[in-house]
Design goal:
Structural class: mainly beta
CATH architecture of the largest domain: Sandwich
Mean pLDDT: 92
Largest sheet: 5 strands, mixed
CATH class of the largest domain: Mainly Beta
Helix content: under 10%
Strand content: over 45%
Distance between the termini: 57 Å
Shape: elongated
Number of domains: 2
CATH topology of the largest domain: Immunoglobulin-like
Number of helices: 0
CATH superfamily of the largest domain: Immunoglobulins
Length: 194
Amino acid sequence: MVVPNSGRIEVGDTLRPTARALNGRGDSTAAVIVWSALDTTIQVVDSNAGTSVGRIVGTGRLQARVGNLRSNPVAITILARLDSITPGGPVRDTITVSASDSLSDSLKVQAFGPTGSTAGRRIVLSVTFPLGATNLTLVPRDTVLTNGSGVAVFQLRLTGAPLPDSALVAATARHADGTVVPGSPVTFVVEFRP
């Protein structure tokens, strides 16, 4: 059984898993596969196609069946739908570079949803200017997760020369289906002063 998006969907989103039946030699065989949900967090709306919809936030399990033969259940994570992201504080920071290793103040992104927690949502970060700068890194890394309040926190680190006058960092959130969450990207400006 294969589920798209690593088995992550948002409330109200549709999931279309795939499966194939194998014979005793491990070869594919023609068979009618029937899908079922083992939890109330997800609803199978087409048992032959496996089309399922996330009902409520939580973890659900899907199972494929051919006759009396059942697959192992596959966990599906149903997330709260994100409405938007915005800056969670100032979008500008100035670093006075006094050492070869300098760190910006905390930069924050706030995620919003209509219901349920927006915790654990991925915010993807990228330095968009200056391009190819090898002395700029994102801390803790280029992907951060929102906390229990829906806030993702990160910093920009400058190590060594050359000293840019500024850097731009873009923070982007995507829905489980890959579409961009409104408000993305949030752009942060970090200025460097000697």
